[in-house]
Amino acid sequence: MVSVVSATLCAMSDHTPGLWDSIDDLHTWLDSHRPVGGREGLLLRILKLSEEVGEVAQAVVGATGQNPRKGTTHTWEDVQSELCDVAVTALVALRTLTPDAREVFARHLKKVTDRSLGGTGTG
């Protein structure tokens, strides 16, 4: 699943104008508004991923009606939105770790693609 998300993000970075500019802007905005800085702030930003993944799980449970007490509370579009939040949060966390996030991500994606597709990736 991770490699599918990674491949999608790479395709988006090639076809979505301003993806990395938006990630840089979000990183800058978050840095100017975070109540905790330093190493603790970095760790909290990375932990934000867990919160977002939990929201994906909640949306899937809601879309499938798995909670009989609540029934169907979400749509598959909600799941898509929550998955996008995970992707954006991950990229902002990566940008927080390094100003070279775009290059780091591209290198990692190439490794994952080569490993998964045997160097026969499409695109």
UniProtKB/TrEMBL annotation:
<protein>
    <submittedName>
        <fullName>MazG-like family protein</fullName>
    </submittedName>
</protein>
<dbReference type="InterPro" id="IPR044548">
    <property type="entry name" value="AF0060_NTP-PPase_MazG-like"/>
</dbReference>
